[in-house]
Description:
Blueprint lengths: L2 H25 L3 H32 L4 H10 L2
Amino acid sequence: MSIPVIFMLAVGLSMDAFSLSLIYGTLELSKKRCRQMSIIVGIFHFIMPILGYQIGELILRFIKINAVYSIFKMLFGA
């Protein structure tokens, strides 16, 4: 993966984590519960990009897909 892709992934995950922390703050949860939930979210933020990358590689082995066209179709619904 190139540096810009990794940077965009990091920014996206950071924004997601920030929005979750705002939710935790508004729910008035105990500190222990906030820590537990933050650890769970952190684990998922670590595992899901790796899992998605692996599944994408597996799919591309069996089905030849033009990635640029597929991303355009997902983003713009064309």
